[in-house]
Every structure is written in structure tokens, then in C-alpha cells.
Amino acid sequence: MAGVVVGLKDLHYAKLTNDDTTGVVYETPKKIAGAITATISPTTNSATLYADDGAAETASSLGEISVTLNTKDLPKAIQADLLGHKVNSDGVLVRSADDVAPYVAIGFRSMKSNGQYRYIWLYKGKFQPHEQSYQTKGDTPTFQTPTINGVFVKREIDNRWQAEVDADDESVNATVITNWFTSVYEETTDTGA
């Protein structure tokens, strides 16, 4: 499992349609072409109890997880899915103050320096409308790519927030890697049959 992360590709999202005591349900993952960067920043909240003139105990809990994605483009259908916008009958993306972003999962893979991949799924988050910036073309073209920010949290059903696996980990079932983007990863149970 040696190797250092050196790449990013195959960015996917899947709408989360149910997360409660009855189970968790995702729609089929869809690809976002042209992944440039993905930044995952978990927040840990901690507290220290002082006793006898010194630190005696410490405890921490997971807060929100900030996710920033930079892509080559965010087509209108993907913006509608991620941000709750609508594409009207004329094919125009229309943004409204009443739009509500749905919960989604985000998955991708990252090449490592040994040629193998690390696979990631973030289970539950919402994205916020992204900043739009336009610049005139000068002597040298400047690429203007969209960045979208989201806040991810743990799932209600099991408190899980992320799944991660390296393809070169010999203990991993090969089917897990093969099916990584066909559905959001969920642990398989061996029935022994």
C-alpha cells in the first residue's frame, strides 16, 4: 500500500433520498467531468477538563466537514441536481431564492505514485451556490473554472461520514473496487451462503 496521492479523477455524486432508522438510499451515481481539486476539511471540536491544577481529561467530537470541489465545468443539469435549481422548458437554468439543495454523496478516486488508486465516498452533504467570476481574454488566455463549496455531516442511520480504500490493499475484496462508482459504497455482509 505504498504510494503517495498524486492525482484526482472520476468525480461522482449521488442524491441521498433517505437517511433514517428505516435505512439509507442513494440514487445512482452520476459523473462530474473534469475534476481539478477536491479538499476535505473535517472540523474537530475538543474540550479539556482541568482538575488538580492541570489538564485531567480531554474529549473531542466531529463537527462539520467542509468540502471544496474545483472542476472544469458544472453543466446546468449538475447545478440543478447539486443546488436545487431548475432547468425550465426552454432549457435555461433558473436560480431562485427558494431553491433548496438536496443532500448528496460525493465519490472520486485519486492516483497514487505507485500507479494504484485511493477511492473515496463522502456520505452526506449539501452544496451552496458558487461564486461566479468572469474575466476578459487578454494576450494569454486564463482558464476560469468553477469552485463549489459544501458542508458534509455524519449520516443519521450509522454516524458514518466517509469511506476510503486503496486498490492495492490486499485485504480488500476486488468487487468493492470494481463497483465503487456503480453505487455509493455500503458495507457488504457475508451471509456464508
What are the main properties of this structure?
193 residues; mainly beta; 9-stranded antiparallel β-sheet; two-stranded antiparallel sheet; 7% helix
Description:
This protein has helices spanning 76-83, 174-178, and strands spanning 9-20, 23-26, 30-32, 35-51, 54-71, 86-87, 93-94, 104-111, 117-127, 147-152, 162-166. The mean pLDDT is 92. By secondary structure, the protein is mainly β. A hairpin with a 2-residue loop joins strand 1 (9-20) and strand 2. The strands form two sheets. Strands 1, 2, 3, 4, 5, 8, 9, 10 and 11 form a nine-stranded antiparallel sheet that branches. Strands 6-7 form a two-stranded antiparallel ribbon. It is built from two helices and eleven strands.
Mean pLDDT: 92
**How many helical stretches?**
2
The count of β-strands is: 11
**Major sheet, described briefly?**
9 strands, antiparallel
Low-confidence stretches: none
What is the radius of gyration computed over CA atoms, rounded to a whole number of angstroms?
A: 20 Å
Helical fraction: under 10%
Instruction: Give the N-to-C terminal Cα separation.
Output: 31 Å
Oligomer: single chain
Q: Give the strand content.
A: over 45%
3D shape: globular
Task: Specify the structural class.
Answer: mainly beta
Secondary-structure element sequence? EEEEEHEEEEEEH
